[in-house]
Amino acid sequence: MSESFSRPVVLDATVLSNYASTNSVAWLTTTLDDLQTVPAVRTELEQGCEVGYAYLEHAIDVLESGQIGIATTAPEQLQQDYPEVQTRLDPGEAEALVAAHTAAGTLVTDDGPARALAADYDITLTGSIGLLVRGVVLEDLTVETADEWLMTWIEERNYYSPVDSVTAALPDDFEE
């Protein structure tokens, strides 16, 4: 988990939404290099804002600032070169997978079908919790803060988490 990721690091909507809900998208931009997302994710975030999820503005503001780039060619690549992906995933996950694959980057998603398909394409993969674990291991984030963010995602955003604490996902040889 603590090793560096292949660049770019491509974020899907769930991951950006999670971090936006804890006002921590800026933390992502200061701890990871070459962050990207895709047009469909931006659209999903904008639609979420329009229906009342105001916290998504944090993510949109970071996208507008250019701190997270937009892989603008992903929709066209998806349609031309990945028709099977387009039929198996939602637009945001599909475009993010294609952007990560074509750039030999890392896909950051919590979506089960996207994770399974990423494995088929041999794409480096992590998720929201994986980023928390990486932050703790690299001492960019305390366990307490990571757990606070995780609890917000679970309790306020109905995020499904396989763990109740980041400590459960830390490497066996990690020492606090």
Brief rundown of the structure:
InterPro entries: PIN-like_prokaryotic. With 176 residues, this protein is α/β, with parallel strands linked by helices.
Describe the structure.
InterPro entries: PIN-like_prokaryotic (IPR021799). This is Twitching motility protein PilT. The longest helix is centred in the C-terminal third of the chain and has 15 residues, at 143-157. It is globular and about 50 Å long. It has helices spanning 13-21, 25-31, 39-50, 57-65, 74-81, 83-88, 91-102, 112-120, 128-137, 143-157; strands at 9-11, 35-37, 69-70, 106-108, 124-126. Strand 4 (106-108), helix 8 and strand 5 form a beta-alpha-beta unit. The protein is α/β, with parallel strands linked by helices. It has a domain at 9-127: 5'-nuclease (Rossmann fold, 3-Layer(aba) Sandwich), CATH 3.40.50.1010.
Give the termini distance in whole angstroms: 16 Å
Main sheet makeup? 5 strands, parallel
Low-confidence segments, ≥5 residues, pLDDT <50? none
* Portion of residues within helices: 55-70%
Approximate strand percentage: 5-15%
Reported CATH architecture of the domain at 9-127: 3-Layer(aba) Sandwich
Write down the CATH class of the domain at 9-127. Answer: Alpha Beta
Rg over CA atoms, rounded to whole Å, is 15 Å
CATH topology of the domain at 9-127: Rossmann fold
Strand order of the largest sheet: 3-2-1-4-5
Give the overall shape, derived from the CA principal axes: globular
Mean pLDDT: 94
